[in-house]
From TrEMBL:
It comes from the Eukaryota. Residues 38-296 form the DUF1996 domain. It comes from Melanomma pulvis-pyrius CBS 109.77. It holds the Pfam family DUF1996. InterPro entries: DUF1996 (IPR018535). Keywords: Signal. Residues 1-18 form the signal peptide. This is DUF1996 domain-containing protein.
Length: 364
């Protein structure tokens, strides 16, 4: 959980003295469903190639056709704490591959940043940030338009070359398990690859989306070209956008907590090898990615972004946005559209939805 360190640094750097000032909204979303559906990359495909965990509005479906699906209007609930947020956020599942027999087991998730008012005491789901640049200037941040969607990362990557600066893994100490760790995201303590040693507090995965938009297209064929990161070495928003993408948008970031502690047997982590693999067959971690589909009601997100540092703090924007009880967010779930068992069971050759990748069989 980077927010305390980052906010403190911002206050020092820019002399922002207003009590409760914040450059971001931060809140929890419980798990809506785990299934092989991906309406961004594989619209209409059931089942899609690999397993995702999805959070947000329950209008989520196989296509999410922007011409027929209006998430704020058609979702009857949201698994996110702010009731006006019917967006969908999804990421790939992580599996443990047994070095002993080659079988796979889905790694359970855990709550992130517990003891905070807008986060959730749940297993599964993720923490969402909507950030604006930490700058002394009053910079306009334009909320997304209806139908907007984007992808961060590239699931085909298998090496550090070309890896995304805003997608990383943090190996948590045992003392960091409850609050998720401190420090800015994707700094020197993080790696683009999976950690190479057992993590006593589990693993926190961070996905940072671009912060600049071309101002015209709500999507693009690769789901990336209509957005861009700020110039510089860090994925975090700077005070400039490239001329090709001049519109500043809220920077979305995910934190996902995986409880890998049951797999910390030293025998699983010998000779620099690690036993984790993403559901799309990536045992390196470089292919980590996230999908985003905008679905805030009316101008709620714009209200929230405009109120940051004034009426809204990072953990509390209830003076501007509507919040629901954590139990109600957790109760918002959806039945699978791709019907299959995606629990923490093992998967071996010959079972449904298992296939061979470099002589490894696993549930996708």
């Amino acid at each position: 959980m980077f927010w305390k360190s980052l906010l403190f640094a911002a206050l020092l750097a820019h002399d922002v003295s207003a009590q409760g000032s914040s450059g971001f909204l931060r809140f929890g979303c419980s798990q809506l469903v785990v299934e092989r559906i991906d309406p961004l990359v594989n619209p209409g495909v059931n089942p899609s190639p690999h397993t995702h965990q999805i959070v947000g509005g329950n209008s989520f479906n196989v296509t999410m056709d922007p011409y027929t699906i209006d998430p704020p209007a058609q979702s009857t609930c949201t698994s996110c704490i702010y009731t006006e947020d019917k967006s969908n956020y999804w990421t790939a599942s992580v599996y443990f591959q047994s070095p002993e027999n080659g079988t796979f087991k889905r790694v359970p998730q855990m709550a992130n940043g517990r003891l905070n008012g807008t986060l959730l005491e749940q297993e599964g789901g993720l923490t969402v940030y909507y950030m604006r640049p930490f700058s002394g200037k009053n910079m306009t941040t334009t909320a997304f338009k209806p139908g907007f969607r984007m992808l961060a990362g590239d699931p085909t990557l298998r090496s550090k070359t070309g890896s995304y600066p805003g997608i990383c893994h943090r190996c948590l100490a045992a003392s960091e398990r409850t609050m998720g760790g401190n420090g800015a995201p994707c700094d020197s303590k993080d790696t683009a690859s999976f950690p190479s040693k057992p993590c006593l507090g589990g693993i926190r995965i961070t996905v940072i989306f671009p912060s600049c938009w071309d101002g015209k297209n709500v999507d693009s064929p690769d789901h990336r070209s209509h957005v861009a990161y700020s110039p510089g070495s860090s994925a975090l928003a700077g005070d400039k956008c490239p001329s090709t993408h001049p519109v500043r948008i809220p920077q979305v970031m995910y934190e996902i907590m995986f409880d890998t502690t049951q797999f910390n047997n030293p025998d699983y982590w010998k000779d620099g090898k690690q036993p984790l693999v993403y559901s799309f067959g990536d045992a390196t971690g470089y292919g980590a990615h996230g999908d985003y589909l905008f679905g805030w009601k009316d101008n709620a997100l714009q209200r929230g972004m405009d109120a940051l540092g004034n009426k809204c703090g990072s953990e509390d924007c209830t003076s501007v946005l509507k919040i629901q009880a954590g139990k109600d967010a957790i109760a918002c779930t959806k039945s699978q559209q791709a019907k299959e068992d995606v629990g923490t069971d093992t998967c071996t050759y010959g079972r449904p939805h298992c296939w061979n990748t470099a002589n490894i069989y696993f549930r996708a």
